[in-house]
Amino acid sequence: MVWPMSFPRPFFRVAVLSAALAASHSPATRAAEPVALNPLPLCPEAALSLGQPSGIKRTPVSADQAIEVSSDSARVDIAGDATVAGKVVVRQGDRRLTADEVRIDTAHNGIDVNGNVEYADPELQVRGEAGRYEGGTAQFQGADFQFLQQPSRGHAGSLSLDAQGVLRLGDVRYTTCPPDSTDWQIKAGSVSLDTARQQGVARNAKIEFKGVPIVYLPWISFPVGPARKSGFLFPSLGSSSRGGLQLSAPYYLNLAPNYDLALEPTLYTRRGLDLRADFRYLTTRSRGSIDANFLPNDQALGQSRGRVRVSNVTELPGDWRLRIGAENVSDVAYFEDFAQGADGTSIAFVPRELALSYRDANWRSGAVLRNYQTIDKDLTGIERPYTELPRLYANGWWTRPGALPLEYGFESEAVDFQRNLGVQGWRLDLQPSAQLRYEGPGYFLRPSVGFRSTAYQLTDTAVGQDRSPTRNVPVVSLDTGLLFERAAGNQGRRRVTLEPRLMYLYVPYRQQDGLPVFDTGTPDLNWVELFRNNRYVGADRVGDANQLSTGVTMRLFASDSGTRFLSATVGQTIYFTQPQVLLPGETAPAGQSSDLISQVELKAFQNWSVDLGMQWDHRDSRAAKSEVRVQYRPEGNRVVNLGYRFQRDRLEQADVSVAWPVSAQWNLYGRTLYSLRDRSAIEQFAGFEYSSCCWAVRTVARHYVSNRSGERDTGIFLQLELKGLSNVGTAANAFLERAIRGYSPTSQKH
Fold it and tell me: Which one, 250, 508, 591, 592, has the greatest CB density within 10 A?
């Protein structure tokens, strides 16, 4: 039979685990039917296949929504107590209960359920033999339970659920593993699970892995869903020859939805206790972080050591922005000792910058304060970068309406360069310019003219050197290009473009040997540099030029999607007059043309990509620079990279890296960065990952150059992930994503 019931309002609250189902859930009443609950054995990965995406919530309903009960028989005694028996199904909205028998105790305002009790709602399933609901709380003895949003399960000697959805359990076993392979579990005297806040707290707990206790804790907090929460994270384990064994015990503070704090003390057996704090914040106008380490007494070095890094961007009213980026370390060997990678040996400077900027449709202006901490101790005082206190700049650019396509504007800056050694002083640089911009389908033509005026006010100059040198030079250019396009391939499924480009540049020679060099250098030659109006970066030198830059680019596209299969570029600069302006120590260009540059990007098949780049010295008929990168990437976690880099008289390196699953559970990783010039490896690592239904372990062993003198370090790092609980170990995935180009364990096939 099926018959509606109505009970006093206090009977039915959130997540009641009994026949009295809450009067706060689900939409319209439906006819009762046999209830088919999901089986309890679930892996985290299996949840989506059962239609249980995260974020499901119980649906509120009105307090007077009907409750439907179906059963084989029903009996009401003279006192008004009712007993419903024989395949009892009680339903209210999206909450269901089945039992062999339901007895309604009107005298005590309670309900007793007995025999094969099963309860389900969108968040929770419970199974037990008997239970009672009274006074707003449901109680079970000897119950199995399972959460559906983050598949996890357990067993409790006693279980109760209050009207707020807080589940309290005694004599508990909790895990995310299926029953046939409980590889890890929490055993606790008591556990409180807040389903609304998706947080759990266990007391007198121990965590077992493969039956072996790995952590004993009087108190532990853990997530019951994807929500952020405060609490201890599991220890990080590692070892390196410089620091010895290392053990971290991080604690996460979820201070507010828009800011948090992570504390991570780390004990190095060869150095001592390092204290780290990482604070992050996000407001309507600002975002940033403060990250700091402090080691009170490094036993290996005999002094305190530390690092602090601050990053902030604030959007101010009126199109203004404030940016702060600063870092400081206690000593020049800090990154070599704590960066744990060959990249730490290449850090020469640590920047500190405070910038206030304004930007609108026509203007770019602002002020910058910038200096550097020099990390490379081999740099002499005269080689170290200048402090800029301040750098003031203002740039404007406008388009004149009308038939004549005229654009005009200027760039300007004033900088005070300071340093303890060498020439110091102010530099003022002003660059007004104008151009005509003719464009149409398949062509562009941009004649332009400009003028660059630079003046200095110097101190600490050499005897007889001008303290107020100036330089004034005009700049004239004509930049033009064409675009040819045609269909190619079967039925025009491909499009081929051919894009030749020419740029003539004239800059008369000006003697500049008497000017200081504050921030100017020579960039690598590439396609962009071919078509700039100054071969130097920085205002201390303006290269003289009477030259023609030439280049051509060919591209192959898919006509329907626009996917690019091939891009090939070649270019060169022809000198009509030999350049004369040079930086100190720079060698003058030889011959009547620059090196030839070429770049090829190829996607031969869906999963293959090839990048080739070369700077060819045609005078010596050999490469000055070259780079080759080949990648096979069928999926984010299946990547093979081959690379080669060459710079004449500087470096020659081969790079091989791979991340590949060899079975459903096993993944292998590895990389070798090898110096062919020195005949030795710069960095090597190899590792593996085993991943089961509810846990994973990753191990990486590394051997790398750790300082500029060529000394090497060896490290072993371990990560144990108990899925649905936390991680034990260093962030191996983050390291692998940096070290193996294209590797992404969570991405899909591209």
Answer: 250
